[in-house]
Amino acid sequence: MGLSFTVGGTRGTFDEGFANEVAGVLDHAFGAEGDWEGVPPRSFGELAGTGWADLQAQAAEELGADAVPNLLALGADGRGAYLPAHVRAVSLPLSAGQALRCASLPGLRRELAELAERWDLPLDDEGLEDLLRVHRDPVDGWVADAPEVISFAQLALAANEAVRRDCPLWLVGAI
Questions:
Q1: Is 136 contained in some domain?
Q2: Which pLDDT tens digit goes with each residue over 30-85?
Q3: Domain assignment present for 81
Q4: In what order do the strands lie in the sheet with 80-83?
Q5: Which of 53, 101, 112, 167 is the most interior residue, by most CB within 10 Å?
Q6: In-domain check, residue 6
Q7: Which domain holds residue 54?
Q8: Is residue 151 situated within a structural domain?
Q9: Distance, CA of 130 to CA of 119 (rounded, Å)
Q10: How far apart, in whole angstroms, are the C-alpha atoms of residue 31 and residue 24?
Q11: What DSSP assignment string belongs to 78-119?
Q12: Into how many domains does the chain fold?
């Protein structure tokens, strides 16, 4: 299974026991302000290959690592959450042994806006969906777009939805 983007609460995103633990850790760290549990999840697809790492590397090269702290906060494996709050990147301990990495969704959106301007890419849902639709075209798409552009489009589309729903954007899976 590859890395995927999911917008919503912990329930439906994770199995019940893990969902409750993650929601509890977030409540303890940030208060019960967020809807960590109840928002039904919506998936934005799975990244192919090294798309996440390619996006991080290209963003850091283009803008500098200091300009993309939220994008880089989840690390090369990409697992964690972008929270709908202005928070500093943090790793929170979980009983399973691996920490839950969290960063700011508003901060991520600013970084994506800077990348979109630099790369001349859209940020609106329709433009992002068009990018992904062209990518899926077996004649033109598979070789037309760099992996970081497709990863950007999926991430930006998911971030837009997370902002509208005021809930976390989860990066889950293993690459």
A1: yes
A2: 876 666 777 789 998 888 778 899 999 999 999 999 999 999 999 888 789 999 99
A3: yes
A4: 42-46, 4-7, 169-172, 80-83, 100-104, 90-92
A5: 167
A6: no
A7: 47-167
A8: yes
A9: 16
A10: 9
A11: --EEEESS----EEE--TTSS-EEEEEHHHHHHHHHHHHHHH
A12: 1
Do the beta carbons of residue 60 and residue 53 sit within 8 Å? no
Q: What residues contact residue 8 under an 8 Å CB cut-off, 6+ apart?
A: 39, 40, 41, 42, 165, 167, 168, 170
Can you read off the two tokens belonging to residue 84? 């709908």
Q: How far is CA 2 from the centre of its chain?
A: 13
What single letter denotes the amino acid at residue 138?
Answer: P
**How far is Cα 94 from Cα 42, in angstroms, rounded to an integer?**
24
- Spatial neighbors of 126 by CB under 8 A, at least 6 apart, are none
Count CA atoms closer than 13 A to 20's CA, side-chain side.
2
User: In this structure, which amino acid lies at residue 37?
Assistant: E
Q: What is the DSSP letter of 137?
A: -
Return the closest-CA partner of residue 81 out of 98, 65, 104.
Answer: 104
User: What's the whole-model pTM score?
Assistant: 0.89
